[in-house]
Design brief:
Arc Repressor Mutant, subunit A; 3-stranded antiparallel beta sheet; 100 residues; alpha+beta; elongated
Length: 100
């Protein structure tokens, strides 16, 4: 995974595999059903949620498969779901029926 701070060799970039910030935001909007600003893919890349390559001081490209798979949810939904999945299952007392 490239760090966003790394500059990419422009001759080795297959543009068919990457979105610009505005196109990535449009795709995220379609995935999630709400309006996403073009600055949001940058934040996702900073947090390591999607891969990005920096092509200049002001422009980055975002990896299509990562963007296509990502769905923006309401605040706290993903973290709440992750906490529930990490939680240990509750161990309850089971009632055994006596067989006569």
């Amino acid at each position: 995974m490239n760090n966003q701070g790394d500059r990419a060799d422009r001759s080795s970039i297959n543009l068919a595999e990457w979105y610009s910030a505005s196109v990535a935001a449009e795709r995220l909007s379609r995935n999630s059903g709400k309006t996403i600003k073009p600055s949001y893919p940058r934040k996702l890349a900073e947090y390591g949620k999607i891969r990005a390559i920096r092509i200049s001081d002001r422009a980055s490209l975002y990896y299509k498969p990562d963007v296509d798979a990502y769905i923006v949810e309401e605040r706290g939904e993903k973290s709440g779901r992750a906490q529930r999945q990490r939680a240990k299952p509750k161990v309850g007392k089971t009632k055994e029926k006596a067989v006569a």
